[in-house]
Design a protein that fits this description.
mainly alpha; Non-ribosomal Peptide Synthetase Peptidyl Carrier Protein, Chain A
Length: 117
C-alpha cells in the first residue's frame, strides 16, 4: 500500500497536477488529491478517454487494457444531470461513472499498474 504522506507520493502528485494542468487547461492550484476527474475537472466522453490514454502513456502504466472504460467514462450527453432522473437505474449507472481521484491516479502512477480504487 502506498501512503499519501511519503515524499514519493507527494512528488508524483505534483507531477500529476502539472500533467492535468497542461492536458486539460485546469488551474493547477485548484487540484488536490481529492479532485475527481470527470466531476471536478468537467470533462466527459472522448475528452476523458483521451485524457486516460495520455495518462497511461505519460506515466508508463503497464496494463492500460485492464482499465474498465465503461465504468469510469461517461458519454457526452447534454444536460446529463437532468436526464438522470428519466432513465432506468442501469442507464443512470452508465451516465454516472465511478469516481477517480487524483490521489488514486497518483497511486496507480507510482505502482505503474492500473487497479480499481
Amino acid at each position: 500500500m502506498i501512503h499519501s504522506n511519503t515524499p514519493e507520493y507527494e512528488h508524483m502528485l505534483t507531477m500529476l497536477k502539472d500533467f492535468i494542468a497542461v492536458e486539460l487547461g485546469v488551474d493547477r492550484a485548484a487540484l488536490t488529491a481529492e479532485t475527481r476527474i470527470e466531476d471536478d475537472v468537467s470533462i466527459a466522453g472522448l475528452d476523458t478517454y483521451i485524457f486516460y490514454e495520455n495518462y497511461f502513456s505519460t506515466f508508463g502504466i503497464s496494463n492500460p487494457n485492464d482499465f474498465p472504460v465503461d465504468e469510469y467514462v461517461t458519454s457526452e450527453i447534454p444536460l446529463r444531470h437532468l436526464l438522470l432522473g428519466i432513465f432506468s437505474k442501469n442507464e443512470h449507472q452508465k451516465l454516472h461513472p465511478k469516481h477517480t481521484t487524483l490521489g488514486h491516479l497518483t497511486r496507480v502512477a507510482l505502482m505503474k499498474k492500473w487497479f480499481n480504487p
